[in-house]
């Protein structure tokens, strides 16, 4: 039986992992002569581990290269965020909620892109359209992704569709959204086992903008003082990443999930572009009050700067 | 009320025009506080004129530039095929059945892409999902687009979804698919009022491929001898277009809708790439037996050559 790889972006977050699991499940229910397999192209973060463990879902296999494979891309489309070997893969489908850029296919494909807060909301709607009620485990995967991407509906990226889907899924998964959501988000702020380099790479994406190539890393926390105390050590790691990845600028965005404010450690040759987009940095720090969404509140100002 | 422009590609065919009309109609039924307006960025061809006249649908306005507008793109996504001012427009939606390439948006959008034979099949499915029965006129628009793009189901691009949608639409529009279809396709072969330059531009698309920039024009006919008799004059016009549009190669594909074979007049500095993809040209002519689809039978071999 033909195998189709379903995967989310590099440095996968809960949307990338949990939505891949839920969509592979749906596709396998709908199609008999193919087998969709959810895989990942990076390590699980603590938040996603919590979600998988809570709902008793197994981790998914790591894949290094997708050359020669049929693929379904979840929660990303830009070349810098996808798997090695992408050019030699056949893209069957794309399910995403980001802008489209640096994405080229050789042939027509199926694409379902919506400006929602989370890709799982699209997949939940696909279950509904096909009149398939997701299992408790799959409902748990999708609601975890939605909570993660919308920061429990607090992010400006959150839409009515996300809230509606998440409430529907919570009724199937039999969880209290607020309690489970805060527990899961807090689990994601546990960085005690990680090196600074690992923390910077947990959710780092590269954006090719008109003004240059920018790396933007983001972490959630319940206390931004802790990472800020290690600023000098982070800046050293960031310098190494800038050189290794040939970046023109870097933002390390630390988001407090209790206050919904962020603060960024910034660096790089084109830090002036970042300052133009937000505000003057003070000792490599920019305050970002009310900012929680990279996609909606950081990338657009940086693109326009 | 905010105006949203809905438009298909340059050198519009029946899919580009009729699907824009049918989708603007659907969106206006679904959304109260916006007004979707179907527009075109080129002249109607004879086939599309026949369809509009048959179903009593008015021609749609011509728009030269979409800068500053909110837009919905139909039946195309590549930059070379879209409107002037695209970079300064806000892309709300994309509905398409082509590969994705040279398409960049600043923000997340809604995209619905399916590997179907025709974009109207996607729109027809959207009507069905929303439980809205299209009017006779709108059904006529969509079935005309499907007949046109699939050459009455003869093209290898045609899927079961296209056939199913078209039969459903024919029952609403109260037409005999075969009779109406052949009449409409034949109307499109009437080129008597057009100059050779106009004929070459009727359905010409530019493709940026690894090996260069190729123009591929296609016309339908019931008798390929007529255009072939004017080969030398066509070659002169093609040379001018190659220079004007900075092309590396050009194929003028003449498709017989009765026999479902094509023949191409080829020219340009990189005609060797075209020959590698198909066969050696004989006096600037390449026979293409069984070829009717540019998307499925011409662009992929040329991309791989």
TrEMBL record, chains A, B:
SUPFAM superfamilies: DHH phosphoesterases. It catalyses: diphosphate + H2O = 2 phosphate + H(+). The keyword Ribosomal protein does not apply. SMART domains: DHHA2 (SM01131). Residues 181-305 form the DHHA2 domain. Its cofactor is Mn(2+). Keywords: Hydrolase, Manganese, Metal-binding. Signal peptide: none annotated. InterPro entries: DDH_dom (IPR001667), DHH_sf (IPR038763), DHHA2 (IPR004097), DHHA2_dom_sf (IPR038222). Its EC number is 3.6.1.1. One of its GO terms (cellular component) is cytoplasm. It comes from the Bacteria. It holds the Pfam family DHHA2. NCBIfam families: PRK05427.1. This is inorganic diphosphatase.
């Amino acid at each position: 039986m033909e195998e189709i790889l379903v995967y989310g972006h590099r440095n996968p977050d809960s949307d990338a992992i949990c939505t891949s699991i839920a969509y592979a499940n749906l596709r396998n229910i709908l199609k008999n002569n193919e087998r969709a397999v959810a895989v990942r192209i990076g390590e699980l973060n603590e938040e996603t581990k919590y979600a998988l463990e809570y709902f008793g879902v197994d981790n998914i296999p790591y894949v290094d290269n997708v050359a020669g494979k049929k693929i379904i891309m979840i929660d990303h489309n830009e070349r810098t965020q996808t798997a090695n070997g992408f050019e030699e893969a056949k893209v069957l489908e794309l399910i995403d909620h980001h802008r489209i850029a640096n994405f080229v296919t050789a042939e027509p494909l199926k694409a379902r892109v919506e400006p929602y807060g989370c890709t799982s909301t699209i997949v939940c709607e696909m279950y509904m359209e096909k009149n398939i009620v997701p299992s408790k485990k799959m409902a748990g995967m999708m609601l975890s992704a939605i909570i993660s991407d919308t920061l429990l509906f607090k992010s400006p990226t959150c839409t009515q569709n996300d809230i509606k889907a998440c409430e529907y899924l919570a009724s199937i998964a039999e969880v209290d959204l607020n309690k489970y959501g805060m527990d899961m988000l807090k689990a994601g702020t546990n960085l005690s086992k990680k090196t600074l380099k690992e923390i910077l790479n947990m959710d780092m994406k590269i954006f090719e903008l008109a003004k240059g190539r920018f790396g933007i890393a983001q972490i959630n926390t319940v206390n931004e003082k802790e990472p800020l105390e290690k600023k000098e050590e982070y800046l050293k790691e960031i310098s190494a990443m800038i050189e290794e990845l040939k970046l023109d600028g870097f933002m390390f965005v630390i988001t407090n999930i209790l206050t919904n404010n962020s603060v960024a450690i910034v660096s790089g040759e084109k830090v002036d572009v970042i300052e133009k987009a937000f505000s003057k940095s003070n000792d490599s720090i920019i305050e970002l009050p009310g900012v929680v969404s990279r996609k909606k509140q950081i990338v657009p100002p940086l693109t326009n700067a």
